[in-house]
Amino acid sequence: MKLPLKGIIPPVITPLTDNDTLDVKGLENLIEHLLSGGVHGLFMLGTTGEATSLSYELRKELLKRTSELVKRRVPVVVGITDTSMDGSLKIAGYSAELGLDGVVIAPPYYMPIAQEEMREYLENIVPRLPLPFLMYDMPGCTKMHMSIETIKKAKELGAIGVKDSSGDMSYLYALIQEFKDSPDFAVIAGTELFLPETILNGGHGAVAGGANVFPKLFVDLYNASVDRDMEKIAILRDKVMMINNTIYNVGKHTSRIAKGIKCALSVMDICSDYMAMPLRRHGKEERKKIEQYMEELTAIMT
Amino acid sequence: MKLPLKGIIPPVITPLTDNDTLDVKGLENLIEHLLSGGVHGLFMLGTTGEATSLSYELRKELLKRTSELVKRRVPVVVGITDTSMDGSLKIAGYSAELGLDGVVIAPPYYMPIAQEEMREYLENIVPRLPLPFLMYDMPGCTKMHMSIETIKKAKELGAIGVKDSSGDMSYLYALIQEFKDSPDFAVIAGTELFLPETILNGGHGAVAGGANVFPKLFVDLYNASVDRDMEKIAILRDKVMMINNTIYNVGKHTSRIAKGIKCALSVMDICSDYMAMPLRRHGKEERKKIEQYMEELTAIMT
Amino acid sequence: MKLPLKGIIPPVITPLTDNDTLDVKGLENLIEHLLSGGVHGLFMLGTTGEATSLSYELRKELLKRTSELVKRRVPVVVGITDTSMDGSLKIAGYSAELGLDGVVIAPPYYMPIAQEEMREYLENIVPRLPLPFLMYDMPGCTKMHMSIETIKKAKELGAIGVKDSSGDMSYLYALIQEFKDSPDFAVIAGTELFLPETILNGGHGAVAGGANVFPKLFVDLYNASVDRDMEKIAILRDKVMMINNTIYNVGKHTSRIAKGIKCALSVMDICSDYMAMPLRRHGKEERKKIEQYMEELTAIMT
Amino acid sequence: MKLPLKGIIPPVITPLTDNDTLDVKGLENLIEHLLSGGVHGLFMLGTTGEATSLSYELRKELLKRTSELVKRRVPVVVGITDTSMDGSLKIAGYSAELGLDGVVIAPPYYMPIAQEEMREYLENIVPRLPLPFLMYDMPGCTKMHMSIETIKKAKELGAIGVKDSSGDMSYLYALIQEFKDSPDFAVIAGTELFLPETILNGGHGAVAGGANVFPKLFVDLYNASVDRDMEKIAILRDKVMMINNTIYNVGKHTSRIAKGIKCALSVMDICSDYMAMPLRRHGKEERKKIEQYMEELTAIMT
Question: For D132-148, how does the pLDDT look when each residue is reduced to its tens digit (9 = 90+)?
Fold first, then answer.
């Protein structure tokens, strides 16, 4: 994997036909959809990928098939966040066996732990990781907003980047500044709306959930940002805002974003919209809204 | 298992010699220590038991050995909280095979879910549970403070009780009131300090972490509460407060309580104080303090 | 004022006819209602008294009339919580001029300040207070849950007690334990449901919002708690729970408790239900429910 | 006042010689410092201005002198946030008498209120306001993150803009998008780091605390943003980041930013560094660090 990791790396949703069964054809469709959209890498088993809801068997099958389908056309990084070191290492080991490119790790997330405890944990787990690793800040799920000091510690231990999904742009900017003299260390936005700011200010890419649905839009926005083409950025950014205001905004609860993405992909006949437990796919009424929104969005995307 | 579940049910710590190895002799010592102290049941694989930090293999070994050691002298309930339904059902299934008595379930805890989503999840998982189940409210770890309505839904689906570790006594009282006409449904305090209040006001017991160390103290306090012996309660409660102010109060971070309990048991030569990752056992300095405190506490316990 | 402050001290609501006008007759009715119910003191200008919503002129008028109406039959303490020291000292000074008995102070509540900053603030303001003072822990409004160390500092500086409205019973118990050897220092529950626990475990009283409506109920519960009459406590406590489940439970938003109390007093023809801005009194529909609940409650109170 | 309000509008600190005394000479120095730096307006009595810590007398004196010193060279808007409508209207009325330009209002901040209650409050207070008004989102102090719907309601009632100090850039972008077709309505960043993003994406200005110290830097960054001069933005933005990492980063607690600004101004001999209670100015050690940082910063500013 060429460092630093760069560009649009979708947090790939996991297509399912039921709680324990991969939607194999859907996964194939999805990966071709993403790669033909020009994405620069894939992030499997992230939050949007419902990783923590899946059995280990299913996670392994997903990785195996992904590896076979991608055929090394782009780098694939794999979320190994778990509450137990054992679980993290199992997925990391399997990723290495498959020849995937890296792993992504967030704090163990059941018991609240302190920054200092997280740093100690990294000292323990990092020597056991068989692949390059990125850090993943996701306080909404893990209850820990990793301090800059914790990320610095991770870098000392070998981290090749950080994905920030905190939604806290001051933090994202602080990360960029902290690591600006480390050319191989990637600072990647987890909040897709912040893609242009990230690139314009020295960051490297975005793990954009919306790129599951509209990969080319995000790739274009990335390129416009690299080119500092402010007019093009403005036009594309408005389209990203529209996704926010439409398919992410159907239904209640935090889960509506993940549900909206899967539903949109189902409307596009790419894959099933089945959500792993504890979540449920959108109902008829919500799906109808998504269908209408997808018509509107598809019209403006081209 | 006789309903309602009653009395002192320690959240048994998991004795370890290293991150992947059970301290088998320690577990035997611990179980004898607890049963000779008169506890009314055991809660394995709870938060204090570091369940989420352990591999599934280790969890299974713990349950198998516990089952063999307890020999049905008291009921054993098992925490099956997981982020995936698969993980929960695996532990539940294994508990059933071993002939254990019940399972304890908290919300899936990675993605923030809504009360409504939790109730839907219960509708899905409960029919698959092979054993009676209790609900477990633990918002500090799961990010969800289950509403009374959610617990009512669980009861409709068959729950035999609820363990409240929210620390929110208004909520605990609301639970007791809600279920006062359901003689088989247990309301169990997860905050050990609230044991007498729970019993005096119509609740059924406590999952008291401190009962790992001083089982008889908590059993005595339970009995005094059942007898409404206010003077005895006052004396014993002061001793419980002392545990709070001593062995729970060494070191920093939330994890100091679990570390303190394991360290105290190690000082008593019952089992190892090894903590599973991401945590680390107390250092020398902290251990020294615990040793001193244990001397003082042991003196007043008798 | 005899120390420690003891018993039922209602946080007296402020009867208003509009945003800037005291309901003078209502105040007279209310005070007689409270004193004939046997309350042990009055707490004016607390959270339930909508202090921070009132102009200083109105606060002064309220205190003047209260002083004239109470005629020293019971001690009167006055909330002086403000964001500016000037505001706090103005109300404190006026309370002293009127010969009232003490003041009650919580942290300045606009800017988030640290425990250390609060302790420094106490060092500055306490020497300027013309009356004995109690501390008031109210994190839901002030954003600061004062540490035990901060309350200890306040006591060193002369505080005669603490009122705990955090809802955190572990904290309340820690306060009781900390100050158990200080016979003149009062630990007062701000959560009315915790009155019996407070008294049974060594605390001194309760600032119970519901005592505005049913003063005798709370006085009886206080006395039963002092007498350790567990059966009577159980009966009276159930009635307190019923208030919670009825008049506090009409409408949405945190403000429903204050609105419910004023509405109930209006239904009893004691005073107007007008709420100072930014709040509004209950609408017709809510009032109707309160009327029904008041019938039920009145029936069981006697 | 020309609409929309635009540019750099510092939240002017309040120079004090002690808790109740304005540093009159310091105020004069400060205003000349700001106006000669080219700022487009002044925001008096904001959070950085310690408004809520000041007596009303002092607030009035500050406004009177400011009015006399500014002599209408730039618009002056005044924070009227208070817990009581009376307090807000007093400051608003006085601002109008002095011929100042507008007022800035945040939710009443003692009792937690709901969005719906805030909207009702606006319906009540807005007709009584004698001057144009802006909304102020400051959840860290007021406990309420005003919804887009609440801001829309304010605009319907006549608001001329919103200042967003939530630190939540997704929200800031949503505000810009919501009001992009309202040419007279200003969306102003309260997080100074977000100035370029605000302007580049269609917002209007920044209330930048750091502009108290380095007004020209922020004015230059504003102009570069208006000109979409990405290279210049990058250079100036780095300087803003340096302020963050130096004078805002001395000492502990949230208050260190306000203390750092006042201390820096004192080091520049502009005004006293006295902080109103409950805060205290930086101690010797902190001041020494600020002195060193100011030397470094001054060197790079020119």
Answer: 999 999 999 999 999 99
- Dump pLDDT digits (tens) for B45-100: 999 999 999 999 999 999 999 999 999 999 999 999 999 999 999 999 999 999 99
Which domains are present in chain B? Answer: 7-228 (3.20.20.70)
List chain D residues with CB under 8 Å of A169: 167, 169, 193-194, 197
Verify whether the Cβ–Cβ distance C253 to D19 is below 8 Å: no
User: Across chain C, what does the average pLDDT equal?
Assistant: 97
Q: Which chains touch C (3 or more CB pairs under 8 A)?
A: B, D
Interface check A93 vs B, CB under 8 A: no
Q: Which of B161, B155, B165, B151 is nearest to B185 (CA)?
A: B161
Which pair of structure tokens corresponds to residue B145?
């403070």
Shortest Cα–Cα distance, B242 to chain C (Å): 10
What local confidence, expressed as pLDDT, does residue B261 receive?
98
Q: What is the pLDDT of residue A87?
A: 97
* Dihedral pair phi/psi, residue A199, rounded to 5°: -70, -45
C-alpha distance from residue A129 to each of A11, A93, A265, B276 (Å) = 21, 8, 34, 18
Is C84 in contact with D254 (Cβ distance < 8 A)?
A: no
What is the arithmetic mean of pLDDT over B180-209?
97
What would the pLDDT profile of A228-274 be if each residue is shown by its tens digit? Answer: 999 999 999 999 999 999 999 999 899 999 999 999 999 999 999 99
User: In this complex, do C241 and B169 lie within 8 Å of one another by their Cβ atoms?
Assistant: no
CB distance from B193 to chain C under 8 Å? yes
Among B19, B83, B112, beta carbon nearest to A85: B19
ipTM of the complex: 0.95
Closest Cβ–Cβ partner in B177, B228, B241 for C230: B228
Does D284 reach chain C within 8 Å, measured CB to CB? Answer: no
Q: Who among B57, B110, B143 is closest to A52 (CB)?
A: B110
Residue range D58-105, pLDDT digits in tens: 999 999 999 999 999 999 999 999 999 999 999 999 999 999 999 999
Q: What is the pLDDT of residue B201?
A: 95
Q: Do A141 and B111 touch (CB under 8 A)?
A: yes
Disruptive mutation site among B197, B221, B240, B244 for chain C (greatest number of C CBs within 10 Å)? B197
All residues of chain A having their beta carbon less than 8 Å from the beta carbon of residue D167 are 168-170
| DSSP secondary structure string for all residues of chain D | --SS--EE--B----EEETTEE-HHHHHHHHHHHHHTT-S-EEESSTTTTGGGS-HHHHHHHHHHHHHHHTTSS-EEEE---SSHHHHHHHHHHHHHTT--EEEE----SS---HHHHHHHHHHHGGG-SS-EEEEE-HHHHS----HHHHHHHHHTT--EEEE-S--HHHHHHHHHHTTT-TT-EEEESSGGGHHHHHHTT--EE--GGGGT-HHHHHHHHHHHHTT-HHHHHHHHHHHHHHHHTGGGSSSSTTHHHHHHHHHHHHTTSS-----TT-----HHHHHHHHHHHHHHHHHH-
The pLDDT of residue A197 is above 90: yes
pLDDT at D110 over 90: yes
- C20 to chain D, any CB pair closer than 8 A? The answer is yes
Q: What is the mean pLDDT of chain A?
A: 97
Closest-CA distance of chain D to residue A100, Å: 33
Q: Is A189 left (phi over 0), alpha (psi -120 to 50) or beta?
A: beta
Closest-CA residue to A94 (of A65, A69, A63, A49):
A63
Q: Do D170 and A191 touch (CB under 8 A)?
A: yes
B185-194: average pLDDT: 97
CA distance B189 to B78: 16
Nearest-Cα distance to chain D for C74, in Å, is 28
Taking the Cβ of residue D230 and every Cβ of chain A, the question of whether any pair is shorter than 8 Å is answered with yes
